[in-house]
Amino acid sequence: MRGDELKGRTFKTLVEYYTKNYSAGQIAGQFCDVMDGFPHPAHAEAAQWTMDAARSMAEDKGFWKRECVSVLSDIKSAATSYLERQNLDPSDEVLYDIIQAVVLNFACTPHQEK
Asked: How many domains, in total, are found in the chain?
């Protein structure tokens, strides 16, 4: 999905896009490619930390119904904060990859709407 297609859609819609259009193996492959492509070992750690933070966000029963752009912004903010605390550069490229890893992680391990 392109960025302009996300406006007004829920986060659940984005995750469902992946699960409907890609096999579990394709999603896992994309996830591995993103994680393997991080330029610094700590960036992969940041992605893992952000995925854990996103899973915590998903505990809120309204999470899946929130607007996608808002959820992605929250994920970006969490990743930026983590990277800055680690004295690492939160470049747009790294933040995009972290967001992609989080979305793919949700697509790999579907969560039930609470």
From this structure: 1
